[in-house]
Amino acid sequence: MIVLDPNGERMRLMPLNIGPSHGATHGALRYMTAIDGETIVALTSEIGYLHRGFEKMAEQGTWQQVIPYTDRLNYCSAMMNNIAYCRAVEGMLGVELPERAKVLRVIINELSRIADHFICVAAAAQDLGSTTGFFYLFDSREETMVIWEKLTGARLTNSFARIGGLYRDTYTGFEEDVLNVCKTVERNLRDIHACFDRNRIFLDRTTGVGKISAAQAISWGWTGPCLRAAGVASDLRKDEPYFDYETYDWDVVTGTQGDVFDRLMVRLAEAEESLKIVRQALKRLKPGAISVNDPRIRVPAHNKVYQDMESLIGRFKTVSEGIRVPAGEYFSSSECANGELGFTLISDGTGKPWRVKVRPPCFTQFAAFGDLVEGSMLADSVATLSSLNIIAGELDR
Amino acid sequence: MMEILTSRHWLEWAITIAKFAFAFVPIGFILLLIPLERRGAGFIQDRQGPNRSYFKLPYFGRIRLFGWVQNACDGLKLFFKEVYAPNHVHRILFALAPAIPFAIVLISPCVIPWFAPMVFTFGDAVIRIPGQTVDSEVGVLLLFGLSSLSAYGAVLAGWASNSKFSLLGGLRTSAMTISYEVCLGLSLMGMLLLAGSFRIDEIIAWQDAHVWGIVAQPVAFFCFLIAMIAETGRAPFDVAEGEPELVAGFHTEYGAMQFGLFYMGEYSHIGINSILVACLFLGGYSVPFVEMSTIQANVGISLGVLCGLIVLALLAFLHMIYRYSRWYKTSSASNKEVILREYSLYKLLAWAAVPVVLVLGILSALFFHPEYTIINGEMVYGAGVAFGTALIQLLTLLVKACFFCWVWIWVRWTLPRFRYDHVMHLGWKVILNIALINLVVTAVIAKLVLGGN
Hints:
The complex is a heterodimer. In chain A, about 50% of the residues lie in helices and about 15% in strands.
């Protein structure tokens, strides 16, 4: 491929197409590079290989029927998406959750965040050629998955949150399981820091690679750990607190350089902060209702439905017609593992959403990918991509 | 023609031909290394590793041999898969490329001395057998030359595959192999200087007389080890296969046994290199702290000690099996009956082997007394002593080589992968300079202290 560079000189470049099915592109995404030797001169990316039509499908069913679709957005922390969506609809309805539901949602959120961050760092370790780091981190994620299995009945796509509460209460022994996971997470964090913190090869591969400044990151619309790694202390849990996040004692982690190393280390440090929140939340977990007591929003329990006429009607109406959400437009965003997951909801007053628009966190991060890696080497593009934690499910929707 | 044949004793010819069997030692290392690598990776990563496949025996049930059966199955699968080539490849080179590294691996053990030169009386004749298959003056250089040829396999594969990923992989391999060949040769120079010879058996003899290479040349040892890992193309230097960016590097387009040949070539290359490091820096076949003449004079007792060591190894194995059995008995594993049945076979075999080896050892210690004749002022023993000594030396060499095999695996599963330019940086700007300085320092010290010329 012969091209003219900006000075008008002829350059011979080799086009190299990476993806959509390639070991480095987790999920299905594609980027096309023009390389000079091993240096990437130009890069364009293409998305849409995993497009499932989430937003269109969301318009077909009732408000509740969107919940299983949200699982498939960021499948590494499915329940966080459920909760973010339900929180948006609840905001539109203007309901206040019972205390136990909030605390449980915090625990689930933070455990999911740990699992998601661990997957990201594990996949990055794998991409940097360290399978051992990968397996060390998968240890505690597996334990989290076992908890999800006991709690929700599913490992990956849980669909556990409901509009106005949660699907069901915890099982006996949930607290001990969570505490055990916390211990495993601590052990894994120790292991992974021992593996990487002072490893010359790892530092050479990650420091100064895929660097972005705070101003650039903000102008690209970055959020979440990637933005915090660039040094901006922006976290919705602190800035616009929900679920009483402001009452927990924890810190926002920021990096300084905004390179691959910072992005990975910010994720690991955030996992530690999440552990703090989980431990505090467990202490606050008192018995009580897990859903709002309103048959128009949350279906009444089965034992009531078979005994009580009003409950039967409530269940029938909510299930068949959907929750009636007041007409209007509403935007709500939550701090998910990858950044700010926003939902713009438009309701026409019926039981079905008129429009659901998702603002996925990794969409903006992937948009900047080309700028980050142009001029660096081919192997750096892989390291950068895995540090951005691109989840194709939420990128393409 | 007849003169050449008759100039040597027939036994000399027979042993010389038999020594060609040593070409298959690296192949043996494949059998050892692949299970060791896969289970070793599991051990490092807190998991089991592949151990599911089994064959059935009448009473003992499913025998898995600690994962060896699974590796045999995987190997068989590669054998029986269709050899497939995409349409866009260069047919001849594509088919030729996987054969090159494997063929090289079969040739290169020829200069490695497996035992000290044997001299023994057979009837009236005195028979002299060198330790290596090819008794060459340039030993180590020949080996380097051969092993650098194996880069052709990767380069040709990268070129013939007609795929950009393969091409980049092939380019990386060729650049890396050439760079690290230089480091490899230079880091060894100090050792060659001390020994004053390119012959591996003379280097070993020097180490036997003075001190092991790892003590005499520690810097060179580490440079050599790193360069050797890089030259094999193993992690952390596996940029040629760098799977995240280059899919599988130069063997992206290969499948079935063609891929298997690359794979086996890599593992037997590790075997060869481990043996070489053991020869050059760990005293090769020389038994630590024991003179060869002592072994020869007390060959019966030496073999007895060898048997004792084997018994110890068997007991350690039994200890492991009993520990596992105890663990399984108390565990809630659903397949524990099956596993305990399997273990009973290992217990039976090991307990049967212990007394046999023990009796053999005691018999040899009591009744194997060497007899010698004096020829030109040297004690020359009979054939039995010579072969017993050679056996001990061969086993010593293999044990040392196995240790390095584990080092290879250990490094691979501990470190992340280098970036391609970092590898070149390390090779040319760091290791090469250290090796050069080491050579100069060694030369000065050798001149001043040892007073060589």
